[in-house]
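ok trying this again, last paste got cut off
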Amino acid sequence: MITKAKCIEMITKYEQAEIDVLDGKNVMIGNRMFQSESLDAIREGRQEWERRLLRFNRRSTSPKTVRFI
């Protein structure tokens, strides 16, 4: 199950990978190797985790619906 903490952890990893690749390093996330040509893939991955985190945040702040019968 994906948790809010996992989303934050993955965003942090993708941000660090982006910095490392911009510095010219090769980066491993899981079993994937990223190089400077992979910068778009890193950004897409980070954005996906940011979207997941946003969904968590919306759930926790959205008003609860109560239905009266």
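PB: full thing came through this time. DSSP finds two helices and two strands in the chain.
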